[in-house]
Amino acid sequence: MKQLTNILLVGFCLLTATLTQAQKKMNGLVNDFIKVEGSWTGQLTYLDYSSGKPYTMSADLEIKRIPNTNEFLFVHTYPKEKSANKTDTIIISKDGQYIGKEKLVSRKKLSNGATMIITEKEGKDGNDGKKATIRQTYTLGNSSFSTQKDVLFSGETAWIKRHEYVYKRH
User: Could you give the domains of the chain?
Assistant: First the structure.
């Protein structure tokens, strides 16, 4: 009986430690995104697959946390291309391992005080919807914020920079 009690106690401690660690990861990511809540002005540069050339346009961003959740609204507005305006919802998983469907690969503090978060997911990209690994790099600072999407097509060895948003705080 004592052995069973000890096993249950050890199991409970391990479960508690695991849940605590997951909570810390989620809270860390949530706090990272809380720091960049607000209005941002900048630009989007993306690779036009048809021409193979980059295209740059003005872009603004409003980041808002949905109260008491691990979800954030990213309201994208394009001053010169209103038809492209959109709102995305970023959801941080309860275990802190995912941002939406993107698996957390790394999260680190940079020497300038910003935080860099890298995620990856399997998906499709390109005009012909080729299978690819899609990497998202978020760089979150006090006065700057950027996201970069890189794509590695199946069977290839070189990553392609698909697009990058670069913002400064209003």
Answer: 2-169 (2.40.128.20)
